[in-house]
């Protein structure tokens, strides 16, 4: 039993379910999830087949809400059956264990069939973010070497079809037609027709360390990194969801994260279903009435979202919240960026539960530090979960030393033995190796630990931009714009933003023959949106005569950042609004 922390006011303490935090036993959890063969581990088996075998196949698994609130449902058995059929389709298409299956669907029910179908076939599920433009999608598809892409027809036609010739690894494209319409075309096949006609395949007996899913994080230099995880991640994801969210069987769980980001894979696809919960998936863009309505009408018990979304909800005020005050929420939690105490308190006032901040990153594969029911401190990221060892380190080149003094800033490090820890940066063995020192994984986040043992976020140790809770690598944005003939040099930095925390802004020096001015600015912003997509395109462009540089000639992003902070916000330059951290996927 973990005692409540000292110095807490009653409002800082959430519910008193601390008993569930007394023990984390990864090995025991691993054992419980074993299958389909003795000793093997496969996420699809652990999440679906196990429940079907235990006679729980009839329980609700997915409730999907279409844009016009059309409801579609899948029970556990139905999802397992459709995934097994897709597994057969994939195998027939030449997919063997370890092959990558890319998925570009947005928030839809087919995402579930695609992910679990890939796992049943022993393949690696590689979800892509629908608000990326053709440029970022191309680099990710190339890096993944995906042989199969499952996509909605609309997203494929708008973003990927034109890239086919430059993606030699991509052999098969399976498309989901709008409103279930059959898909026609020479370059693709109909996903639904193939699944309906297939016979269910047995789940492949993968090993815990076999690769299972692939996400991308952006570096401050170089192309995006492919972060690979193995099937053993399901152990940490299942257990952490139980610890942090206090999940109970038949809970209704809503995670608002977009596919393509690991929060969706871990806590919209895997963890709640593994714990016998039903998940809600909403295809529509943010709308405060709709979101309050979903929480209330679909009787959501546990809600996992982001600080940007919470700030958006707060913007619409308490009066609207009061209309929906009656709800079934037991736990609300947040991830992706710091959560301020006002937002925590707002949760309590507007929804009846405080928001619990949780910390993790793509590489850790599961929540590592969190405020939990029974032990929470508003404004902090909380404490390491049981079974997770964390430390604050001071790093000098390859040497690390623990920072033992409370409140002293250092880099957050985690013991590398977390079952969900990533297993590779694809194709970058040296980079992967250098992320670990003396058995510690170094996160790149600067934090401090207070005398209660709570961790507080201080900032990133690098130039990464956090916008609407998404991580943006400045280098990827810079590369996208360098393709425009007007751009001689470019530096991209995050500019503080009240709603989104930061927005990417670009400083550009021009090639001879190009005149700075409104026309070129709009042209460049449009170019960026078309190539990079709404998620990565800069919101502002500033022309500069010369770039600030280091003595070795590298662009000094720090100096640009100071410039960006000093610039007043210019609303007119914002081309397309961002809705609560979601981007229309142009
Ligand atoms: C980075 C990871 C897997 C979560 C989704 C993002 C920042 C994450 C918090 C928090 C302050 C946070 C860190 C981290 N971050 N949670 N509670 N408070 N910052 O995954 O894209 O890999 O980003 O997000 O900087 O390193 P990601």
List the keywords.
9-stranded mixed beta sheet; disordered C terminus; 6-stranded antiparallel beta sheet; binds 5'-O-[(S)-butoxy(hydroxy)phosphoryl]adenosine; alpha/beta; 586 residues
Describe what you observe in this structure.
- It is a single chain.
- The chain has 17 helices and 28 strands.
- Helix 13 links the parallel strand 13 (331-335) and strand 14.
- Helix 2 packs across helix 3 and helix 2 packs parallel to helix 9.
- Helix content is 30%, strand content 24%.
- The radius of gyration is 23 Å and the shape is globular.
- Residues 1-22 and 570-584 have low confidence and may be disordered.
- The chain starts with 25 loop residues before the first helix and ends in a 20-residue tail after the last helix.
- It has 586 residues and is of the alpha/beta class.
- A nine-stranded mixed beta sheet has the order 2-1-11-10-12-13-14-15-16. Strands 17, 18, 19, 21, 22 and 23 form a six-stranded antiparallel beta sheet that branches. Strands 4-3-5-6-7 form a five-stranded parallel beta sheet.
- Bound molecules: 5'-O-[(S)-butoxy(hydroxy)phosphoryl]adenosine (WT7).
- 5'-O-[(S)-butoxy(hydroxy)phosphoryl]adenosine binds next to helix 9, strand 14, strand 22 and strand 23.
- 5'-O-[(S)-butoxy(hydroxy)phosphoryl]adenosine is lined by residues 217, 262-263, 335-338, 357-362, 381, 443, 445, 457, 460, 471.
């Amino acid at each position: 039993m973990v005692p409540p922390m000292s110095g807490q006011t009653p409002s800082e303490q959430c519910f008193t379910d601390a008993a569930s935090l007394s023990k984390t036993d990864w090995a025991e959890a691993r054992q419980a999830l074993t299958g389909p063969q003795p000793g093997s581990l496969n996420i699809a088996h652990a999440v679906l087949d196990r429940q079907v075998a235990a006679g729980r196949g009839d329980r609700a698994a997915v409730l999907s809400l279409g844009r016009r609130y059309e409801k579609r449902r899948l029970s556990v058995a139905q999802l397992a059956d459709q995934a097994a059929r897709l597994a057969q389709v994939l195998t027939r298409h030449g997919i063997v264990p370890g092959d990558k299956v890319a998925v570009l669907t947005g928030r839809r029910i087919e995402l579930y069939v695609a992910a679990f179908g890939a796992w049943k076939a022993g393949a690696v599920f590689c979800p892509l973010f629908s608000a990326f433009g053709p440029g970022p999608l191309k680099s990710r598809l190339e890096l993944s070497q995906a042989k199969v892409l499952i996509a909605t027809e609309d997203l494929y036609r708008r973003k990927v079809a034109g890239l086919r010739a430059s993606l030699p690894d991509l052999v098969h494209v399976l498309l989901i037609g709008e409103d279930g319409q059959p898909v026609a075309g020479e370059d693709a096949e109909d996903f639904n027709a193939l699944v309906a006609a297939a016979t269910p395949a047995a789940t492949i007996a993968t090993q815990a360390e076999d690769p299972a899913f692939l996400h991308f994080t952006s570096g401050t230099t170089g192309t995006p990194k492919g972060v690979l995880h193995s099937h053993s991640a399901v152990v940490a994801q299942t257990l952490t969801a139980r610890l942090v969210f206090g999940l109970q069987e038949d809970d209704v769980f809503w995670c608002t994260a977009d596919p393509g980001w690991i929060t969706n894979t871990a806590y919209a696809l895997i963890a709640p279903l593994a714990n016998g919960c039903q998940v809600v998936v909403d295809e529509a863009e943010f709308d405060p009435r709709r979101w309050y309505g979903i929480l209330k009408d679909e009787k959501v018990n546990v809600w996992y979202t982001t600080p940007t979304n919470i700030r958006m909800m707060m913007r619409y005020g308490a009066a609207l919240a009061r209309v929906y005050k009656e709800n079934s929420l037991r736990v609300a939690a947040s991830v992706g960026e710091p959560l301020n105490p006002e937002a925590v308190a707002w949760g309590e006032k507007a929804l009846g539960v405080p928001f619990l901040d949780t910390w993790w990153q793509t590489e850790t594969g599961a929540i590592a530090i969190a405020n939990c029911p029974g032990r929470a401190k508003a404004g902090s990221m909380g404490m390491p979960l049981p079974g997770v060892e964390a430390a604050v380190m001071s790093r000098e080149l390859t040497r690390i030393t623990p920072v033992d003094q409370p409140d002293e800033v250092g880099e957050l490090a985690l013991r590398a033995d977390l079952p969900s820890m990533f297993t590779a940066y694809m194709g970058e063995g040296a980079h992967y190796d250098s992320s670990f020192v003396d058995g510690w994984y170094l996160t790149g986040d600067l934090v401090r630990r207070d005398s209660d043992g709570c961790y507080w976020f201080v900032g990133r140790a690098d130039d990464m931009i956090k916008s609407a809770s998404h991580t943006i690598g400045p280098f990827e944005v810079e590369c996208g714009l360098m393709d425009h003939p007007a751009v001689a040099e470019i530096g991209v930095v995050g500019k503080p933003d009240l709603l989104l925390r930061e927005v990417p802004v670009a400083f550009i020096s021009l090639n001879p023959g190009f005149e700075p001015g409104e026309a070129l600015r709009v042209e460049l912003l449009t170019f960026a949106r078309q190539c990079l997509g709404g998620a990565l395109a800069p919101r502002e462009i500033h022309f500069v005569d010369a770039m600030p540089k280091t003595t070795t000639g590298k662009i000094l992003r720090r100096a640009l950042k100071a410039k960006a902070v000093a610039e007043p916000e210019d609303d007119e330059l914002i081309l397309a609004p961002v809705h609560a951290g979601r981007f229309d996927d142009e």
